[in-house]
Design a protein that fits this description.
This is F5/8 type C domain-containing protein. The protein is α/β, with parallel strands linked by helices and 682 residues long. Helix 7 links the parallel strand 4 and strand 5. The longest helix has 22 residues. Among the domains are: 326 residues, no CATH class; 123 residues, Jelly Rolls, CATH 2.60.120.260. The protein contains 17 helices and 25 strands.
Length: 682
């Protein structure tokens, strides 16, 4: 019996771990300290960058900043999941030997490195010694060892990176079942700690460079500050959040475990911590939105986890557009042994690729709350349905704050993101795969005049580019020049080990410059040029988000009429309810096709954008018509494929005093029903 309980426990641990797969106090150093980019006080025993030459500063001939963007990294996830899933620290006041040490349970031979064992098979054994030998870690395919040591981050900066998004990350359920832990499993407690440690790291580096504000690692809380940091040649660090139950917004049996007050309180706290971007859902459906599925056996395991966490399995439906979620994995998984007796993972129709769960009412409230605070929304990991609804909300308000940071968004959304002014980055695939994927969307980047980013997801946790071999014809040749041409990058040495991308792959974050050189040799200078414009594009999205102002609604409170009004003895569905500024009220028509709703703007205005917030009874075929006298009408916009939700009609600005929504065909058996209609000049 004891053995049976142990096997069951390890199986549950396996499930939750699979879910994730989806310097001593400074002393005078030998550095002369005459160059601003070199420390004036650093421990003699520490990792060195292997990069020489002055980092580039200023802007280009067009006045734009330059540099690479890592849009998705997790500096301090070693403090997440109970604090012992990822071994080693980003920095330590006690020195590199303390920072880059393996977890105690990994000694003497790595037998209890459960995560590596589960995700990569074999026996999980490895040499646990970190500094100074690093025989077996860090490695491109190791899931349990620190890859973001501060000096490796420094090398990435010296090699041309100018923006780093540090996503504060954790998962309370994984923490609760992982057998080794030294930290609380409360998600917000972990996020607070990771935010504080990011500021502590900034102070640690500042001390090496002579005092507050002098280091190269600068946490920024607005785009102007970030732009100034990049112009100085330093690294702008942005705080984000990627967690499964933000604000405690778990759902159990489809019942939300949070409310609007929790969302407001949570957003306010995150903003005060310096967080400016975040995900609303990740891996498990929560009270805010549905997720994009995982594939293969991993998908089966995560679906089991979905059930254990929420009481419900994923549910699918036929997709309504070209976008689709990943097919749910149907391969057998040991995780199925953790299901209650008689419970089985459902079978799924291969033609039904979309999560039925989109953006919930609470999720929409959170999205609008982020807009009010000028925060940027990460749409990766959101279901196709949820992503589409979020983009509808942003388009209705012309809000640019949308990010896709690591290849977890259907590429068919790319143009909608760019048209809003958003930013897109690709996961840190190997140079050949990265180049191929970049080519698929390059025409859009050219059309919209934007740069590109990458999301390394170091400590995130996922594999990283494998070595292509020292005999590859287009291998990286050391030393090489940085992308700007001003620095020389040689092999990186940590203690007794020297790393070479050709033979070690992207073992840690310091290999970013080497990986970019590999991209140049494999895919050409064009891909690197797009990446080098990443900083300008990311800061452009952020600045536009901060500068967004809600457009004046010309229709709010105006006089409205309609061809009919649904009769109800308990509430009014009169036409004016669609322009009262309250989305909880609505106009509803009789149950027949040919109906209209009309508003008098009071005087003639230039009208160029109309947003219709449909209730469940929506119009499939309808026209937006304009008139200056209320008698003669012209069609400004029309559709025959309306699908409800938010519809935003954009057209050439036209003088009009009257606007009419003319329904031609209903989308349901009921009539037409509008929660709110907004009318704008731009």
């Amino acid at each position: 019996m004891a053995r049976r309980r142990r096997i069951r426990h390890v199986t549950l641990v396996s499930l939750l771990l699979l879910l994730l797969t989806v310097a001593i106090a400074p002393t005078p150093s030998s550095a002369a300290g005459s160059d601003w980019w070199e420390p004036v006080a650093r421990a003699e025993a520490d990792v060195r960058t292997g990069v020489t030459g002055e980092p580039f500063t200023g802007t280009d001939a067009r006045g734009e900043v330059r540099g690479f963007v890592d849009a998705h990294n997790h500096l301090f996830s070693n403090e997440a999941f109970g604090g012992r899933l990822i071994c080693g620290k980003v920095f330590s006041a006690a020195g590199v030997a303390d920072a880059l040490a393996d977890c105690p349970e990994h000694y003497p031979d790595g037998s209890l490195a459960l995560f590596d064992y589960i995700t990569h098979g074999g026996d999980g054994k490895h040499d646990p010694t970190g500094w100074p030998t690093f025989k077996d870690w860090p490695a491109y395919d190791s899931m349990t060892h620190q890859a973001n040591y501060y000096a490796w981050v420094e090398r990435a900066w010296r090699g041309g990176q100018r923006v780093l998004v540090n996503d504060l990350v954790t998962n309370g359920m994984i923490c609760s079942v992982y057998p080794f832990k030294v930290r609380s499993c409360d998600e917000m407690t972990s996020i607070r700690l990771q935010a504080r440690l990011t500021y502590d790291l900034q102070a640690f580096i500042d001390t090496q460079y002579g005092g507050p504000g002098k280091g190269w690692f600068r946490i920024v809380t607005d785009s102007a500050q970030a732009r100034q940091v990049v112009e100085q040649g330093k690294l702008a660090v942005v705080l984000g959040v990627e967690t499964s139950e933000p604000f405690g917004c778990k759902q159990i049996l489809d019942i939300a475990q949070c409310g609007k007050a929790d969302i407001d309180k949570g957003l306010d706290e995150l903003y005060a911590l310096g967080v400016r971007s975040m995900f609303l859902c990740h891996k498990f459906d929560n009270a805010l939105c549905g997720v994009r599925f995982d594939e293969g056996g991993l998908g089966t395991a995560i679906n089991v986890g979905q059930f254990l966490s929420t009481g419900t399995f994923w549910q699918t439906e036929t997709c309504k557009g070209p976008q689709a979620d990943n097919p749910i994995g149907t391969a057998a998984s040991a995780a199925e042994g953790d299901l209650p007796a008689g419970v089985r993972v459902p079978a799924y129709d291969s033609g039904a690729r979309c999560n039925v769960r989109g953006l919930t009412d609470l999720g929409e409230y959170a999205v609008r709350g982020m807009m009010q605070r000028k925060m940027m929304l990460e749409v990766d990991h959101m279901s196709v349905k949820a992503t589409g609804q979020a983009l509808d909300i942003f388009e209705a308000a012309s809000y640019p704050g949308v990010l896709s940071s690591h290849s977890w968004m259907d590429l068919n959304w790319t143009e909608r993101v760019y048209s809003l002014g958003g930013f897109v980055a690709q996961y840190m695939h190997g140079s050949e795969a990265f180049t191929a994927e970049a080519a698929r969307t390059r025409a859009l980047r050219t059309a919209y005049g934007v740069g590109y980013g990458f999301g390394t997801d170091f400590n995130g946790i996922g594999d990283h580019p494998a070595p292509r071999g020292a005999d590859a014809a287009d291998r990286v040749v050391y030393p090489f020049r940085s992308a700007d041409g001003g620095s020389v990058v040689d092999r990186q040495t940590s203690g007794q080990r020297t790393f070479d991308l050709n033979t070690d792959g992207a073992a840690h974050v310091g290999m970013i410059p080497d990986w970019i050189e590999d991209i140049r040799r494999v895919g050409g200078q064009g891909v690197v040029d797009d990446l080098f414009r990443g900083a300008e594009s990311y800061l452009g999205t952020w600045g536009s988000t901060e500068g967004h102002r809600a457009a004046v609604d010309l229709a709010k409170g105006a006089a409205a009429t309609a061809s009919s009004t649904e009769s109800n003895p308990f509430t009014s569905y009169r036409a004016g309810r669609a322009v009262d500024g309250d989305r909880a009220t609505r106009w509803a028509s009789d149950w027949s096709d040919d109906q209209w709703w009309q508003v008098d703007l009071g005087s003639t205005h230039r009208v160029a954008r109309v947003t219709l917030d449909w209730e469940r009874a929506y119009g499939r075929s309808y026209r937006v018509e304009l008139s200056t006298d209320g008698v003669n009408w012209s069609t400004a916009w029309s559709t025959t494929t309306g699908d409800g939700g938010l519809d935003t009609a954009r057209f050439t600005g036209t003088p009009a005093r009257y606007l009419r929504v003319h329904g031609l065909q209903r989308g349901t058996a009921w009539g037409y029903s509008l929660n709110e209609v907004t009318v704008h000049s731009s």
